[in-house]
Amino acid sequence: MVSAETQSRTKILVADDEDLFLHSTADLLRDEGYDCDTVTNSTDGLAALQSSDYGLLIADINMPGNTDLDFIRRGKSSFPHLPVILVTGYPEVETAVKGIELSISNYLLKPIETEPLLLKVKEAVARPRLDFQMERPLGFQHLGKEDLSYKRV
Q1: Per residue, what are the HEC states of the chain?
Q2: Mean pLDDT in consecutive groups of 10 residues from the start of the chain, 153 residues
Q3: CA gyration radius for the chain?
C-alpha cells in the first residue's frame, strides 16, 4: 500500500490532448495527494520528463507526436524505470502489444472509472520501490554480487 507521505512526494505527468480527461485526471490525482503536471503533446511531454523527476507517466496513445508510441519509446529510453500507464479510447491489439514490449505498467480504456484508475496508479507508483527492494534476495543483503554467483566445481 502506498502511504500518504509517498503519494505527496510522487510527481505524476499526465499527457493527453483531450482536455476533459487531462484536467479531470490531474485534479483527481491532486485530490489524492499526488503532485501532478499536465501536457497536451509529446514535445511538451519529453521536455517535462527531462526537467523534472516523475514517479509515473500517464499517457494517451492517440495524441500529437505519439505516432507508433514514439513518445513512450523515447521516454522509456531516457527513463527506463519510469512506470507508464497508457490510456486510450480506441483500443487496438497492436498498441497493446507494443505497450507490453515497452514494459508499460498498465493499458486502460477510456472512459476510466475513478477507483480502478487510482488503484492502478498506486500499484504503478509502488512497483519501482518493490523492484528496488527486491534487487537482492531477502536475508542476503550483506553479500556482494560475486558471492551470489554460481561457481563451477
Answers
A1: CCCHHHHHHCEEEEECCCHHHHHHHHHHHHHCCCEEEEECCHHHHHHHHHHCCCCEEEEECCCCCCHHHHHHHHHHHHCCCCCEEEEECCCCHHHHHHHHHCCCCEEEECCCCHHHHHHHHHHHHHHHHHHHHCCCCCCCCCCCHHHHCCCCC
A2: 61 97 97 97 97 96 93 94 94 91 93 96 79 42 44 43
A3: 17
Q: How many CB atoms lie within 10 A of CB 144?
A: 9
d(CA 94, CA 85): 16
Q: Which residues pair with 106 in a beta bridge?
A: 85
Q: Which residues pair with 35 in a beta bridge?
A: 11
pLDDT at 9: 77
Residue with cell 487496438: 92
